[in-house]
Design a protein that fits this description.
DNA-binding; mainly alpha; 11 helices; homodimer; elongated
Amino acid sequence: MEDREKSRKWKQNPEAVKADILRVARAEFAKTGLSGTRIEDIAAGTKTSKRMIFYYFQDKQTLYEAVLEECYAEVRGGESELDLEGLRPDVALKALLEFTFDHHRRNPEFIRLVMIENIHEARHMKKMHALAAKNERAIGVVERICNAGREAGLFREDISPVALHWQISAVSFFNVANRATFSTNFGPELFDEAGQALLRRTSVRGILGSVLKDPSQLDALCPADPAQP
Amino acid sequence: MEDREKSRKWKQNPEAVKADILRVARAEFAKTGLSGTRIEDIAAGTKTSKRMIFYYFQDKQTLYEAVLEECYAEVRGGESELDLEGLRPDVALKALLEFTFDHHRRNPEFIRLVMIENIHEARHMKKMHALAAKNERAIGVVERICNAGREAGLFREDISPVALHWQISAVSFFNVANRATFSTNFGPELFDEAGQALLRRTSVRGILGSVLKDPSQLDALCPADPAQP
DNA sequence: TACATTTTTAACCGCCGGGTTCAATTAACT
DNA sequence: AGTTAATTGAACCCGGCGGTTAAAAATGTA
């Protein structure tokens, strides 16, 4: 006994195999969508075979839904690592916004999966009842900031936490989701480092400005353009 | 001669047939994407047959590209009907924003086609060189407002027309594109009439606030919440 | 040893769906 | 009348791809 630690050579490790499949499947589904993805292409990317994909996931759609759920959980998990306790509400909101902007940029596969879900009218996401709790928490973060901001007399009285979350999502999401068409139509300048920094600053200014009771504080909170004098 | 006006019974009308195909194809591609759409489904919706689809459009991809180009031209054409001449720059910007917000809402098929193009990394849109001019004009509208606003001393000096157009697009696009997942995750409230009015107002406030040199004018330009006192 | 689970290989099935063929009919233009 | 373009219908082809079968070997467990 006590040989648990040894002989972890390789074989007979269902979890690792499933994880391997999910990893490749995520990339593939994110790249080409549900109907666009070929199971054989997924298999080709894994260390295992097409056969094992159907062994662990009954069919294509089940696999897709497993990918979606895992990815969603992972991303929402990443979000919850942000700690805003103790910050002044306006500073906290700014931090949340910048974090979300960056976070979405770092997770293009997640963004693409959500785009694909929207094409499908969220048909598959609707089944995932485990997401409800995570979504509540996401709104909860914004809600606490809103309440604190109102109580501190910093924020307007009429702001809605869900609408605020919508605003934050809109810019952060669009920035990644529409990069291809936008840069094709209007040039790639906004998507290099300088352009992204500009958009991030502008987005923060915009949203903070619509929330603050006294927008003249904006310049103090977020310097307009740190580069040019 | 002079029997042009008569006997427009029906037959021998290639343009009408092509238009019929394009109309159905647009709806179908917007609904299910390029790989998700079945040519037979398109044919079923037209007054003609699958045979004629291949007669006029060589293959699926060509048809898809024709749909995309036509839809894009139509939408950009609709945009150009907006006349902002003679308005004060801040008022003009507000009007442009509200127009774009409404316009995107009225054209969900266009939005979905753009989403699909983004999934494809804009592969097909890149081929459409005819769009360049239309895009220039779209930016031109924003640019003129920006210049006028700066000259009038109303707008900040550091705003970029392209970035401003990005902001306007972001909220207007996201509002339609992500409606399915957002309302699944966070409730449908923002998408009824009242919710949409709120988002529209909030978006205008946000973007104007990030552009105006003196954001304290915001309340005058856009009343916070006309409903509640 | 006996038994269940995991893994591998490779061939195979069946149908869906993009695209074609063919043959015939009808309109329009001269 | 003769020619060309438009239109129709239905059968057909065939490759791709989702999903299966079958059989066996390796591993783990007791």
